[in-house]
Amino acid sequence: MTRHTEDDGDAGDSNGTSEPNGGRERGGCGDCGCGEPTPGVPEAGRDEQPSIFVPDEGEVPDSEAASAGDVDRAADRAATDGGVESASSGTDSATGGTDSTELDPDAYDPVDVFPGGDLDLREGADSCYKCTSCDTSCPVAEVDDEFPGPKFQGPEQWRLKRKDDHDIDESITSCSNCMRCDDACPSSVPLSQMHNEARGQFVERQMEKLSVEYIRNRILANYRTSASLASKFPRTASFAMNFGPARWAMEKVMGIPKERDFPEFATETFREWWKARGGAQVENPDKRVAYFHGCYSNYNTPEVGKAMVRVYEHFGYEVMVPPQKCSGTPMFANGMLKDARRHAETNVENLVEAIGEGADVIASCTSCSMSLRQEYPELFDLHGIEDVAEHTFEALEYLRIHEDLEGELDAAGGLDDERAFAYHAPCHARNQGLSRQAVETFRDVDGVNMEDVGDSCSGISGTYGWKEEKYEKSMEIGAEMFEHMEDAEGEVGMTECPTCAMQMEHGTGYEIEHPLQLLEDTLGA
Protein backbone atom coordinates (compact mmCIF):
# COMPACT_ATOMS: atom_id res chain seq x y z
CA MET A 1 0.00 0.00 0.00
CA THR A 2 1.58 3.32 -1.06
CA ARG A 3 0.80 6.49 0.86
CA HIS A 4 0.05 9.62 -1.20
CA THR A 5 -1.24 13.07 -0.39
CA GLU A 6 -4.02 14.49 -2.49
CA ASP A 7 -1.81 16.84 -4.48
CA ASP A 8 0.29 13.98 -5.93
CA GLY A 9 -0.64 14.55 -9.54
CA ASP A 10 -3.87 12.75 -10.47
CA ALA A 11 -5.04 12.28 -6.91
CA GLY A 12 -7.69 15.01 -7.45
CA ASP A 13 -11.25 14.31 -8.57
CA SER A 14 -12.17 12.83 -11.95
CA ASN A 15 -12.32 16.14 -13.79
CA GLY A 16 -8.53 16.03 -14.09
CA THR A 17 -7.90 19.25 -12.23
CA SER A 18 -4.57 19.47 -10.47
CA GLU A 19 -6.01 21.55 -7.65
CA PRO A 20 -6.07 19.82 -4.29
CA ASN A 21 -9.41 18.34 -3.41
CA GLY A 22 -10.63 18.84 -6.95
CA GLY A 23 -10.81 22.60 -6.56
CA ARG A 24 -12.98 22.40 -3.47
CA GLU A 25 -12.13 24.34 -0.35
CA ARG A 26 -12.26 22.87 3.12
CA GLY A 27 -15.77 23.15 4.44
CA GLY A 28 -17.34 22.89 0.96
CA CYS A 29 -20.58 21.11 0.35
CA GLY A 30 -19.01 17.71 -0.05
CA ASP A 31 -22.16 15.71 0.62
CA CYS A 32 -24.08 16.93 -2.40
CA GLY A 33 -21.06 17.14 -4.68
CA CYS A 34 -21.72 20.69 -5.81
CA GLY A 35 -18.24 21.75 -4.93
CA GLU A 36 -19.37 25.17 -3.74
CA PRO A 37 -16.98 26.58 -1.12
CA THR A 38 -18.20 27.73 2.24
CA PRO A 39 -17.66 31.51 2.41
CA GLY A 40 -14.74 32.63 4.58
CA VAL A 41 -13.15 29.20 4.95
CA PRO A 42 -9.68 29.04 3.29
CA GLU A 43 -8.50 26.17 1.16
CA ALA A 44 -6.69 23.41 3.05
CA GLY A 45 -2.92 23.51 2.83
CA ARG A 46 -0.89 20.44 1.97
CA ASP A 47 -0.05 19.66 5.60
CA GLU A 48 -3.72 19.82 6.57
CA GLN A 49 -5.05 17.50 3.87
CA PRO A 50 -6.06 13.93 4.73
CA SER A 51 -3.89 11.15 3.35
CA ILE A 52 -4.99 8.77 0.63
CA PHE A 53 -3.80 5.17 0.71
CA VAL A 54 -3.51 3.98 -2.88
CA PRO A 55 -3.23 0.20 -3.35
CA ASP A 56 0.12 -1.02 -4.62
CA GLU A 57 0.13 -3.11 -7.78
CA GLY A 58 -1.63 -6.40 -7.18
CA GLU A 59 -3.43 -5.31 -4.00
CA VAL A 60 -7.19 -5.41 -3.73
CA PRO A 61 -8.72 -2.09 -2.65
CA ASP A 62 -10.87 -2.08 0.47
CA SER A 63 -13.94 -1.10 -1.53
CA GLU A 64 -13.66 -4.20 -3.70
CA ALA A 65 -13.19 -6.45 -0.69
CA ALA A 66 -16.26 -4.88 0.87
CA SER A 67 -18.37 -5.34 -2.26
CA ALA A 68 -17.35 -9.02 -2.33
CA GLY A 69 -19.01 -9.36 1.05
CA ASP A 70 -15.85 -10.54 2.79
CA VAL A 71 -16.79 -10.95 6.40
CA ASP A 72 -13.15 -10.85 7.51
CA ARG A 73 -12.23 -7.90 5.33
CA ALA A 74 -10.55 -6.16 8.30
CA ALA A 75 -7.86 -8.83 8.37
CA ASP A 76 -7.08 -8.45 4.65
CA ARG A 77 -7.41 -4.69 4.48
CA ALA A 78 -4.12 -2.77 4.29
CA ALA A 79 -3.20 -1.29 7.65
CA THR A 80 -3.62 2.38 8.38
CA ASP A 81 -0.56 4.52 9.07
CA GLY A 82 1.26 3.14 12.12
CA GLY A 83 1.01 -0.48 11.00
CA VAL A 84 -2.12 -1.48 12.95
CA GLU A 85 -5.82 -1.73 12.27
CA SER A 86 -7.81 1.42 12.67
CA ALA A 87 -9.91 1.59 15.78
CA SER A 88 -12.72 3.18 13.78
CA SER A 89 -15.24 0.95 12.09
CA GLY A 90 -16.05 3.37 9.32
CA THR A 91 -13.97 4.68 6.44
CA ASP A 92 -13.88 8.06 4.81
CA SER A 93 -15.24 7.56 1.29
CA ALA A 94 -13.35 10.56 0.00
CA THR A 95 -9.95 9.34 1.03
CA GLY A 96 -10.22 5.61 1.52
CA GLY A 97 -8.85 6.07 5.06
CA THR A 98 -10.51 6.64 8.42
CA ASP A 99 -11.53 9.76 10.20
CA SER A 100 -8.50 10.62 12.34
CA THR A 101 -10.66 12.08 15.06
CA GLU A 102 -12.05 8.63 15.76
CA LEU A 103 -8.71 6.80 16.02
CA ASP A 104 -8.01 5.05 19.31
CA PRO A 105 -4.43 5.83 20.44
CA ASP A 106 -4.33 2.56 22.34
CA ALA A 107 -4.56 0.70 19.03
CA TYR A 108 -1.11 1.94 17.98
CA ASP A 109 2.26 0.59 19.03
CA PRO A 110 4.86 3.21 20.05
CA VAL A 111 7.80 3.73 17.74
CA ASP A 112 11.18 3.13 19.41
CA VAL A 113 13.37 5.92 18.11
CA PHE A 114 16.31 4.58 20.14
CA PRO A 115 16.75 0.84 20.62
CA GLY A 116 16.71 -0.21 24.25
CA GLY A 117 19.90 -1.06 26.12
CA ASP A 118 20.73 -2.71 29.42
CA LEU A 119 19.19 0.23 31.22
CA ASP A 120 16.23 2.19 29.87
CA LEU A 121 17.05 5.78 30.81
CA ARG A 122 15.05 7.55 28.11
CA GLU A 123 12.74 9.19 30.63
CA GLY A 124 15.68 10.57 32.58
CA ALA A 125 17.41 11.79 29.42
CA ASP A 126 14.26 13.59 28.32
CA SER A 127 14.05 15.35 31.70
CA CYS A 128 17.29 17.23 31.02
CA TYR A 129 16.59 20.78 29.86
CA LYS A 130 20.25 21.78 29.54
CA CYS A 131 20.42 24.20 32.46
CA THR A 132 24.08 23.13 33.00
CA SER A 133 23.73 23.08 36.80
CA CYS A 134 25.51 19.73 36.71
CA ASP A 135 28.42 21.16 34.73
CA THR A 136 28.91 24.09 37.10
CA SER A 137 28.92 21.72 40.10
CA CYS A 138 31.45 19.29 38.60
CA PRO A 139 34.88 19.53 40.28
CA VAL A 140 36.62 17.82 37.36
CA ALA A 141 35.16 20.23 34.79
CA GLU A 142 36.37 23.12 36.95
CA VAL A 143 40.04 22.12 36.62
CA ASP A 144 40.06 20.18 33.32
CA ASP A 145 39.13 22.25 30.25
CA GLU A 146 39.09 19.14 28.06
CA PHE A 147 36.46 17.34 30.16
CA PRO A 148 33.03 17.94 28.52
CA GLY A 149 31.15 17.70 31.81
CA PRO A 150 28.26 15.67 33.28
CA LYS A 151 25.61 16.90 30.84
CA PHE A 152 27.47 15.46 27.88
CA GLN A 153 28.53 12.33 29.75
CA GLY A 154 24.94 11.80 30.90
CA PRO A 155 21.86 12.50 28.74
CA GLU A 156 23.68 13.60 25.60
CA GLN A 157 25.97 10.59 25.46
CA TRP A 158 23.08 8.30 26.41
CA ARG A 159 21.26 9.41 23.26
CA LEU A 160 24.37 9.15 21.11
CA LYS A 161 25.21 5.63 22.20
CA ARG A 162 21.75 4.40 21.18
CA LYS A 163 23.19 4.42 17.68
CA ASP A 164 25.00 1.26 16.67
CA ASP A 165 27.85 3.16 15.03
CA HIS A 166 28.61 5.45 17.97
CA ASP A 167 31.35 4.63 20.46
CA ILE A 168 31.43 5.86 24.04
CA ASP A 169 33.60 8.96 24.33
CA GLU A 170 36.87 8.21 26.12
CA SER A 171 36.38 11.23 28.36
CA ILE A 172 33.96 9.14 30.44
CA THR A 173 37.05 7.74 32.22
CA SER A 174 37.78 11.24 33.55
CA CYS A 175 34.53 11.32 35.53
CA SER A 176 35.51 10.87 39.18
CA ASN A 177 32.11 9.46 40.24
CA CYS A 178 31.76 12.09 42.97
CA MET A 179 28.04 12.18 42.05
CA ARG A 180 27.72 15.90 42.79
CA CYS A 181 25.84 16.27 39.52
CA ASP A 182 22.98 14.17 40.92
CA ASP A 183 22.65 16.56 43.84
CA ALA A 184 22.81 19.64 41.59
CA CYS A 185 20.23 18.61 38.96
CA PRO A 186 16.85 20.35 39.45
CA SER A 187 15.13 17.79 37.20
CA SER A 188 16.37 14.65 38.99
CA VAL A 189 18.11 13.35 35.86
CA PRO A 190 19.92 10.10 36.87
CA LEU A 191 23.28 11.45 35.75
CA SER A 192 25.56 9.18 37.77
CA GLN A 193 23.54 6.16 36.67
CA MET A 194 24.10 7.18 33.05
CA HIS A 195 27.80 7.72 33.75
CA ASN A 196 28.14 4.31 35.39
CA GLU A 197 26.45 2.55 32.48
CA ALA A 198 28.50 4.44 29.85
CA ARG A 199 31.76 3.85 31.73
CA GLY A 200 30.96 0.16 32.03
CA GLN A 201 30.27 -0.13 28.30
CA PHE A 202 33.44 1.77 27.44
CA VAL A 203 35.61 -0.51 29.57
CA GLU A 204 33.89 -3.68 28.40
CA ARG A 205 33.82 -2.93 24.67
CA GLN A 206 36.49 -0.35 23.88
CA MET A 207 39.34 -0.50 26.41
CA GLU A 208 42.28 -2.71 25.53
CA LYS A 209 42.38 -5.42 28.19
CA LEU A 210 46.16 -5.78 28.03
CA SER A 211 46.81 -2.05 28.35
CA VAL A 212 48.63 -0.67 31.40
CA GLU A 213 45.66 1.59 32.12
CA TYR A 214 43.19 -1.31 32.26
CA ILE A 215 45.45 -3.48 34.44
CA ARG A 216 46.15 -0.61 36.84
CA ASN A 217 42.48 0.34 37.07
CA ARG A 218 41.54 -3.29 37.67
CA ILE A 219 44.01 -3.47 40.57
CA LEU A 220 42.78 -0.19 42.07
CA ALA A 221 39.14 -1.18 41.65
CA ASN A 222 39.72 -4.50 43.41
CA TYR A 223 41.45 -3.02 46.45
CA ARG A 224 39.89 -5.67 48.68
CA THR A 225 41.95 -8.36 46.92
CA SER A 226 45.23 -6.47 47.35
CA ALA A 227 44.46 -5.54 50.95
CA SER A 228 43.53 -9.11 51.82
CA LEU A 229 46.93 -10.33 50.63
CA ALA A 230 48.80 -7.46 52.28
CA SER A 231 47.07 -8.10 55.63
CA LYS A 232 48.80 -11.48 55.82
CA PHE A 233 52.10 -9.61 56.30
CA PRO A 234 50.92 -6.11 57.25
CA ARG A 235 54.20 -4.58 58.44
CA THR A 236 56.18 -5.91 55.49
CA ALA A 237 53.51 -4.82 53.02
CA SER A 238 53.26 -1.32 54.52
CA PHE A 239 57.04 -0.86 54.29
CA ALA A 240 57.39 -2.32 50.80
CA MET A 241 54.56 -0.31 49.27
CA ASN A 242 56.00 2.97 50.55
CA PHE A 243 59.67 2.17 49.80
CA GLY A 244 61.10 4.89 47.56
CA PRO A 245 62.40 2.75 44.66
CA ALA A 246 59.20 0.69 44.71
CA ARG A 247 57.09 3.86 44.46
CA TRP A 248 59.19 5.13 41.56
CA ALA A 249 58.77 1.78 39.78
CA MET A 250 54.99 1.76 40.37
CA GLU A 251 54.69 5.17 38.75
CA LYS A 252 56.81 4.24 35.72
CA VAL A 253 55.26 0.81 35.20
CA MET A 254 51.69 1.16 36.50
CA GLY A 255 50.97 4.89 36.44
CA ILE A 256 50.42 5.17 40.21
CA PRO A 257 51.82 8.54 41.38
CA LYS A 258 54.90 8.31 43.58
CA GLU A 259 53.70 11.31 45.60
CA ARG A 260 50.92 9.24 47.17
CA ASP A 261 51.57 7.47 50.45
CA PHE A 262 49.97 4.07 50.70
CA PRO A 263 47.89 3.69 53.88
CA GLU A 264 49.32 1.33 56.48
CA PHE A 265 47.72 -2.04 56.97
CA ALA A 266 46.44 -2.94 60.42
CA THR A 267 48.27 -5.68 62.30
CA GLU A 268 44.84 -6.99 63.32
CA THR A 269 41.90 -6.55 60.95
CA PHE A 270 38.49 -5.58 62.25
CA ARG A 271 37.06 -9.02 61.54
CA GLU A 272 39.97 -10.66 63.38
CA TRP A 273 39.26 -8.40 66.37
CA TRP A 274 35.55 -9.18 66.15
CA LYS A 275 36.21 -12.91 66.20
CA ALA A 276 38.73 -12.62 69.06
CA ARG A 277 36.28 -10.69 71.28
CA GLY A 278 33.62 -13.35 70.74
CA GLY A 279 31.30 -11.33 68.52
CA ALA A 280 28.41 -9.30 69.89
CA GLN A 281 28.46 -8.46 73.60
CA VAL A 282 24.78 -7.39 73.63
CA GLU A 283 21.85 -9.62 72.73
CA ASN A 284 18.71 -7.71 71.86
CA PRO A 285 16.37 -9.11 69.19
CA ASP A 286 14.37 -5.86 69.32
CA LYS A 287 17.36 -3.66 68.41
CA ARG A 288 19.64 -5.25 65.83
CA VAL A 289 21.97 -3.76 63.26
CA ALA A 290 24.09 -5.47 60.60
CA TYR A 291 27.42 -3.68 60.26
CA PHE A 292 28.75 -3.24 56.73
CA HIS A 293 32.30 -2.23 57.58
CA GLY A 294 33.71 -2.07 54.06
CA CYS A 295 37.27 -2.78 52.99
CA TYR A 296 39.12 0.15 54.55
CA SER A 297 37.72 -0.18 58.07
CA ASN A 298 38.56 -3.86 57.99
CA TYR A 299 42.12 -3.75 56.65
CA ASN A 300 43.39 -0.25 57.41
CA THR A 301 41.40 1.54 60.13
CA PRO A 302 39.79 -1.11 62.36
CA GLU A 303 39.58 1.55 65.08
CA VAL A 304 36.61 3.02 63.19
CA GLY A 305 34.82 -0.34 63.21
CA LYS A 306 35.60 -0.86 66.89
CA ALA A 307 34.20 2.60 67.71
CA MET A 308 31.04 1.78 65.78
CA VAL A 309 30.51 -1.47 67.70
CA ARG A 310 31.12 0.11 71.12
CA VAL A 311 28.89 3.11 70.44
CA TYR A 312 26.01 0.98 69.22
CA GLU A 313 26.35 -1.42 72.11
CA HIS A 314 26.25 1.64 74.40
CA PHE A 315 22.78 2.30 73.03
CA GLY A 316 21.72 -1.31 73.55
CA TYR A 317 22.02 -2.61 70.01
CA GLU A 318 22.93 -6.15 69.10
CA VAL A 319 25.56 -5.82 66.39
CA MET A 320 25.80 -8.41 63.63
CA VAL A 321 28.77 -8.60 61.25
CA PRO A 322 27.62 -10.66 58.26
CA PRO A 323 29.98 -12.03 55.58
CA GLN A 324 30.59 -9.36 52.98
CA LYS A 325 32.72 -8.20 50.07
CA CYS A 326 33.56 -4.77 48.68
CA SER A 327 30.62 -2.39 48.28
CA GLY A 328 31.66 -1.91 44.65
CA THR A 329 32.30 1.84 44.83
CA PRO A 330 35.83 1.71 43.30
CA MET A 331 34.55 -0.72 40.67
CA PHE A 332 31.78 1.63 39.60
CA ALA A 333 34.30 4.46 39.31
CA ASN A 334 36.48 2.34 37.01
CA GLY A 335 33.74 0.80 34.88
CA MET A 336 34.23 -2.72 36.28
CA LEU A 337 30.51 -3.48 36.51
CA LYS A 338 30.89 -7.26 36.23
CA ASP A 339 33.24 -7.26 39.22
CA ALA A 340 30.85 -5.03 41.13
CA ARG A 341 27.92 -7.32 40.40
CA ARG A 342 29.77 -10.37 41.74
CA HIS A 343 30.44 -8.56 44.99
CA ALA A 344 26.91 -7.18 45.13
CA GLU A 345 25.43 -10.68 44.85
CA THR A 346 27.27 -11.80 47.99
CA ASN A 347 26.48 -8.61 49.89
CA VAL A 348 22.79 -8.57 49.04
CA GLU A 349 22.32 -12.23 49.87
CA ASN A 350 23.87 -11.89 53.34
CA LEU A 351 22.35 -8.51 54.15
CA VAL A 352 18.86 -9.70 53.17
CA GLU A 353 19.30 -12.57 55.60
CA ALA A 354 20.23 -10.13 58.37
CA ILE A 355 17.27 -7.90 57.52
CA GLY A 356 15.07 -10.97 57.79
CA GLU A 357 16.35 -11.37 61.35
CA GLY A 358 15.19 -7.86 62.21
CA ALA A 359 18.37 -5.87 61.52
CA ASP A 360 18.93 -2.61 59.69
CA VAL A 361 22.15 -2.23 57.71
CA ILE A 362 24.69 0.28 59.05
CA ALA A 363 27.76 1.55 57.15
CA SER A 364 30.53 3.68 58.64
CA CYS A 365 31.69 4.78 55.15
CA THR A 366 29.40 7.15 53.26
CA SER A 367 30.51 5.74 49.91
CA CYS A 368 29.48 2.26 51.05
CA SER A 369 26.06 3.44 52.21
CA MET A 370 25.62 5.34 48.94
CA SER A 371 26.50 2.22 46.96
CA LEU A 372 24.02 0.01 48.83
CA ARG A 373 21.30 2.62 48.81
CA GLN A 374 21.51 4.04 45.31
CA GLU A 375 23.92 2.37 42.90
CA TYR A 376 22.89 -1.23 43.63
CA PRO A 377 19.19 -0.78 42.76
CA GLU A 378 20.08 1.48 39.82
CA LEU A 379 22.45 -0.97 38.17
CA PHE A 380 21.59 -4.50 39.31
CA ASP A 381 18.44 -6.58 39.26
CA LEU A 382 19.03 -8.86 42.25
CA HIS A 383 16.51 -10.48 44.55
CA GLY A 384 16.15 -8.43 47.73
CA ILE A 385 18.10 -5.45 46.44
CA GLU A 386 15.29 -2.98 47.14
CA ASP A 387 15.04 -4.26 50.73
CA VAL A 388 18.75 -3.66 51.22
CA ALA A 389 18.49 -0.13 49.82
CA GLU A 390 15.49 0.67 52.03
CA HIS A 391 17.13 -0.63 55.23
CA THR A 392 20.62 0.91 54.76
CA PHE A 393 21.81 3.89 56.81
CA GLU A 394 25.05 5.67 57.57
CA ALA A 395 26.12 4.99 61.16
CA LEU A 396 25.79 8.49 62.66
CA GLU A 397 22.64 9.14 60.64
CA TYR A 398 20.91 6.09 62.13
CA LEU A 399 21.62 7.14 65.72
CA ARG A 400 20.36 10.66 65.05
CA ILE A 401 17.10 9.16 63.75
CA HIS A 402 16.48 6.46 66.36
CA GLU A 403 18.16 7.67 69.55
CA ASP A 404 18.20 10.77 71.73
CA LEU A 405 21.78 11.46 70.77
CA GLU A 406 21.69 15.07 71.92
CA GLY A 407 20.39 14.05 75.34
CA GLU A 408 23.02 11.34 75.69
CA LEU A 409 25.80 13.77 74.81
CA ASP A 410 24.49 16.34 77.31
CA ALA A 411 24.35 13.70 80.01
CA ALA A 412 27.91 12.60 79.22
CA GLY A 413 29.19 16.06 80.10
CA GLY A 414 31.53 16.56 77.16
CA LEU A 415 35.29 16.17 76.92
CA ASP A 416 37.72 16.94 79.71
CA ASP A 417 40.25 18.42 77.30
CA GLU A 418 39.36 20.97 74.61
CA ARG A 419 39.63 19.52 71.10
CA ALA A 420 39.20 21.33 67.77
CA PHE A 421 38.37 19.64 64.45
CA ALA A 422 38.31 20.72 60.81
CA TYR A 423 35.37 18.80 59.36
CA HIS A 424 34.97 17.93 55.67
CA ALA A 425 31.68 16.50 54.40
CA PRO A 426 32.37 13.93 51.64
CA CYS A 427 30.57 14.31 48.33
CA HIS A 428 28.79 10.99 48.89
CA ALA A 429 27.57 12.26 52.28
CA ARG A 430 26.16 15.37 50.62
CA ASN A 431 24.33 13.24 48.08
CA GLN A 432 22.56 11.48 50.97
CA GLY A 433 21.64 14.74 52.73
CA LEU A 434 24.24 14.20 55.45
CA SER A 435 26.57 17.15 54.88
CA ARG A 436 25.89 18.81 58.24
CA GLN A 437 25.31 15.82 60.51
CA ALA A 438 28.68 15.81 62.28
CA VAL A 439 28.67 19.57 62.81
CA GLU A 440 25.11 19.49 64.15
CA THR A 441 25.86 16.52 66.42
CA PHE A 442 28.90 18.02 68.15
CA ARG A 443 28.35 21.78 67.96
CA ASP A 444 26.92 22.00 71.51
CA VAL A 445 29.19 19.41 73.14
CA ASP A 446 31.44 20.88 75.82
CA GLY A 447 35.09 20.67 74.93
CA VAL A 448 34.48 20.15 71.18
CA ASN A 449 35.06 22.82 68.53
CA MET A 450 33.80 21.51 65.19
CA GLU A 451 34.46 23.78 62.19
CA ASP A 452 33.06 23.01 58.72
CA VAL A 453 35.75 23.67 56.11
CA GLY A 454 33.30 24.27 53.25
CA ASP A 455 31.55 22.38 50.50
CA SER A 456 34.48 21.82 48.14
CA CYS A 457 35.38 18.33 46.93
CA SER A 458 38.49 16.75 48.43
CA GLY A 459 39.60 15.82 44.92
CA ILE A 460 40.72 12.24 45.49
CA SER A 461 37.34 10.67 44.67
CA GLY A 462 38.34 7.13 45.56
CA THR A 463 40.77 5.89 42.94
CA TYR A 464 40.69 9.05 40.77
CA GLY A 465 43.56 10.70 42.66
CA TRP A 466 45.55 7.45 42.62
CA LYS A 467 46.17 7.71 38.88
CA GLU A 468 49.35 9.44 37.75
CA GLU A 469 47.65 11.34 34.92
CA LYS A 470 44.99 12.69 37.30
CA TYR A 471 47.07 13.34 40.41
CA GLU A 472 47.72 17.04 39.72
CA LYS A 473 44.05 17.62 38.94
CA SER A 474 43.00 15.92 42.16
CA MET A 475 45.31 18.19 44.14
CA GLU A 476 44.02 21.25 42.32
CA ILE A 477 40.44 20.24 43.15
CA GLY A 478 41.40 19.74 46.81
CA ALA A 479 43.31 23.02 47.12
CA GLU A 480 40.31 24.93 48.51
CA MET A 481 39.72 22.29 51.17
CA PHE A 482 43.40 22.30 52.16
CA GLU A 483 43.34 26.07 52.52
CA HIS A 484 40.22 26.05 54.67
CA MET A 485 41.61 23.27 56.88
CA GLU A 486 44.80 25.23 57.51
CA ASP A 487 42.75 28.33 58.39
CA ALA A 488 40.60 26.35 60.85
CA GLU A 489 41.39 26.49 64.56
CA GLY A 490 42.06 22.76 64.94
CA GLU A 491 44.83 20.66 63.52
CA VAL A 492 42.84 17.42 63.45
CA GLY A 493 40.65 16.71 60.45
CA MET A 494 37.38 14.80 60.49
CA THR A 495 35.39 13.04 57.79
CA GLU A 496 33.31 9.90 57.24
CA CYS A 497 35.05 8.90 53.99
CA PRO A 498 38.35 6.95 54.16
CA THR A 499 39.71 8.18 50.83
CA CYS A 500 38.80 11.79 51.70
CA ALA A 501 40.77 11.19 54.90
CA MET A 502 43.77 10.11 52.77
CA GLN A 503 43.57 13.32 50.75
CA MET A 504 43.10 15.53 53.81
CA GLU A 505 46.16 14.01 55.48
CA HIS A 506 48.16 14.13 52.24
CA GLY A 507 47.39 17.81 51.63
CA THR A 508 47.78 19.14 55.17
CA GLY A 509 49.68 16.58 57.25
CA TYR A 510 46.86 16.62 59.82
CA GLU A 511 45.72 13.56 61.74
CA ILE A 512 42.24 12.53 60.58
CA GLU A 513 39.47 10.97 62.68
CA HIS A 514 36.02 9.57 62.01
CA PRO A 515 32.96 11.08 63.81
CA LEU A 516 32.33 7.67 65.41
CA GLN A 517 35.69 7.88 67.17
CA LEU A 518 34.82 11.25 68.67
CA LEU A 519 31.38 9.95 69.62
CA GLU A 520 32.99 7.00 71.38
CA ASP A 521 35.31 9.32 73.34
CA THR A 522 32.50 11.72 74.26
CA LEU A 523 30.07 9.04 75.44
CA GLY A 524 32.77 7.06 77.19
CA ALA A 525 31.57 3.99 75.31
From TrEMBL:
<dbReference type="Pfam" id="PF13183">
    <property type="entry name" value="Fer4_8"/>
</dbReference>
<dbReference type="GO" id="GO:0046872">
    <property type="term" value="F:metal ion binding"/>
</dbReference>
<keyword id="KW-0560">Oxidoreductase</keyword>
<dbReference type="GO" id="GO:0004368">
    <property type="term" value="F:glycerol-3-phosphate dehydrogenase (quinone) activity"/>
</dbReference>
<dbReference type="InterPro" id="IPR017900">
    <property type="entry name" value="4Fe4S_Fe_S_CS"/>
</dbReference>
<dbReference type="InterPro" id="IPR017753">
    <property type="entry name" value="G3P_DH_GlpC_su"/>
</dbReference>
<feature type="domain" description="4Fe-4S ferredoxin-type">
    <location>
        <begin position="164"/>
        <end position="197"/>
    </location>
</feature>
<keyword id="KW-0411">Iron-sulfur</keyword>
<dbReference type="InterPro" id="IPR004017">
    <property type="entry name" value="Cys_rich_dom"/>
</dbReference>
<keyword id="KW-0479">Metal-binding</keyword>
<feature type="compositionally biased region" description="Basic and acidic residues">
    <location>
        <begin position="70"/>
        <end position="79"/>
    </location>
</feature>
<keyword id="KW-0408">Iron</keyword>
<dbReference type="InterPro" id="IPR017896">
    <property type="entry name" value="4Fe4S_Fe-S-bd"/>
</dbReference>
<feature type="region of interest" description="Disordered">
    <location>
        <begin position="1"/>
        <end position="109"/>
    </location>
</feature>
<keyword id="KW-0004">4Fe-4S</keyword>
<dbReference type="GO" id="GO:0016020">
    <property type="term" value="C:membrane"/>
</dbReference>
<dbReference type="GO" id="GO:0009331">
    <property type="term" value="C:glycerol-3-phosphate dehydrogenase (FAD) complex"/>
</dbReference>
<feature type="compositionally biased region" description="Low complexity">
    <location>
        <begin position="80"/>
        <end position="100"/>
    </location>
</feature>
<dbReference type="Pfam" id="PF02754">
    <property type="entry name" value="CCG"/>
</dbReference>
<keyword id="KW-0677">Repeat</keyword>
<dbReference type="InterPro" id="IPR009051">
    <property type="entry name" value="Helical_ferredxn"/>
</dbReference>
<dbReference type="GO" id="GO:0009061">
    <property type="term" value="P:anaerobic respiration"/>
</dbReference>
<dbReference type="GO" id="GO:0051539">
    <property type="term" value="F:4 iron, 4 sulfur cluster binding"/>
</dbReference>
<protein>
    <submittedName>
        <fullName>Anaerobic glycerol-3-phosphate dehydrogenase subunit C</fullName>
        <ecNumber>1.1.5.3</ecNumber>
    </submittedName>
</protein>
